[in-house]
Give the backbone structure.
Amino acid sequence: MRRRAVGAAAGAIACLALAATGWGHGDEARDQPPPTRADFTPPAAGSYTLQAIMRAPAGTVVDLDGRDRRLAELTTGKITLLSFVYTRCSDAWGCPLAYRVFDAVAAAVERSPELRSRVRLVTLSFDPRHDTPAVMRQYAGEQAARGIDWRFLTTRSERALAPLLEGFGQDVRIPAAAGPAAAGPLTHLLKVFLIDPRGVVREIYSTAYLYPEVVVADIETLRLERAGRATTP
Amino acid sequence: MTIFPRWLVLLVVCAALVLSAPLAGAPALADETCNSPYMANLIKGQEDYVYVWTLGKAGLGDGSDKLVTLDVNPGSPRYGTVIHKVSVGGRGEAHHMGFTDDRRFLWAGGLDDSRIVVFDVGTDPAKPRIVKRITDMPKRTGYVGPHTFYALPGRMLVQGLSNARDKGGVTGMALYSNKGDLITTYAMPTADGGDGYGYDIAINPQKNALLTSSFTGWTNYMMSLGKLVQDAEAMKRFGGTMVVWDLKAMKPGKVLPVPGAPLEIRWSLKDGDNWAITATALTSKLWLVRPAAGGEWEAREVATIGDPAKIPLPVDISIRNDGTGLWVNTFMDGKTRYFDLANPEQPRQTYEKVTGKQVNMISQSWDGTRVYISSSLLANWDKSGADDEQFVRAFKWDGKELTPAFEVDFYKEKLGRAHHMKFGTRATRAAYPAAPLASTR
């Protein structure tokens, strides 16, 4: 697995990404890295249906070059895997877990001729005060230049971010006694969204169920659905 | 759907006895150790609030179902008192609640009117407010009696108890987005031994396993108890199965025979454990669900709760966070029992105490040192006269004795019948106050 470039910076400030307390894992277990593989064999791709949960919201984001982009351009046309992160997060069960899973999914997509041109990964910051395009470029490291479509995005302001958080149902909180959000850790429930080419969210993963092999099987299920070989909801 | 003739005989014989004092078998689902594994921000320290989903009682206060907020932080000047209440208007047999995965919203259901009310508990946890009402569940899903509210990532899985066609026990689950939009439904299996009944939901994501249990339909749970126990045909209409579902595919798998209406399901939260436990209301037994030697799921009776011949009626259980102990409340005798689960194959009762004239729900703090008990089962099944106490009682537990901490008398406060309890905290606030918190329309 490739290492991201900003590990040191990310580790500087504790993240309270209280990603759904993993199944069977108390606080002591969170000192350990999360499991890398599911403890079960996922059902075969295409043998099940991913439900249509909701439409991905509209809004404006900023790419690594500082250009405004309509989010819809980056959540339609391909199968998209999207995660909210903030680069200061260092909880192994939070944003770093999302990064690690994305990295593993990217490797699987790269290896698959059927998926390579059909899948997009999106890493979107919910910390616009800190995560400027320059910070996101550093966070992306070599990933942005990889042979697959992996976008690293942020927003211009909390005002621009708000409809995206609201639309996806992504919470971001801070300790009640904390100061301004940018100065301290952010508490959030880690969520990763799988979006079909029409822009419909078809699966949502949190820590307790975020395994690369499960995500890849779901991506493959959506591909088979598009090909008419799997059931649509 | 079968029930044991022995039981039937027993119940009929006891009918006269229970005409003035209810039977049970219903509802519960509670506390911090029993929340969905997908839920964030478990309260592992001191809880600040207990939310109580309360059945309205005609002639008492406004008579409406309501969400009552108790201050339970010993450091607060308002400790042990009612600090807020939100009436929903009317009585619909308020019953169970469940948080969304991010703990910002609390969904609460009515077993009679099948309405779901969504409360925002994230903006101001001390003052929940109604942000959405779902009133078309029977029309849209065919199911009635929303019972268990179980958080999935970004979604809420709702277990019905009954159906709109004949209001019997054959039912299903409805999946909603966190915004309250219906996504799909899943029928409880009626083939391969399935009885089609539903009650509780519990998930073990590491095993891709969703477990369901089974109770009874609207025609039974809304019937007066005295009438029900004298109706031999009605008494046959209780669930006697649990189902292991493929969670990812949401397809029913193995049906496990568990006679006597298995209710609450609790997975052990201990790392590496792979078992769940349930209590059967009608037969007063504990059943263990775990894979057998060959890997196939099986359910086995592992303990007896009280004297089944005296119909104690276990109505709620609460498991310790390390899976080593289990609280069991039995409605009829008003007892709270503790079972040592060091060997889940052989649970051993080590403590019991009468905690009320009728007791129903039991919720413990994450560390197990605080235990909360409520009183109401169902409006038509609660006891009458002096035995109809309605309360939330808080206790301290030192491993040996339950010591009273405080009590709120729900009749004296003109609130109603206290049923389901959930914990709240004021530990966090929205990072971006300008962003609307209410993702529920």
User: Anything to note?
Assistant: Chain A touches chain B through 50 residues (CB under 8 Å). The mean pLDDT of chain A is 84. Strands of chain A lie at 54-55, 60-62, 68-70, 79-85, 119-125, 149-153, 173-175, 192-195, 200-205.
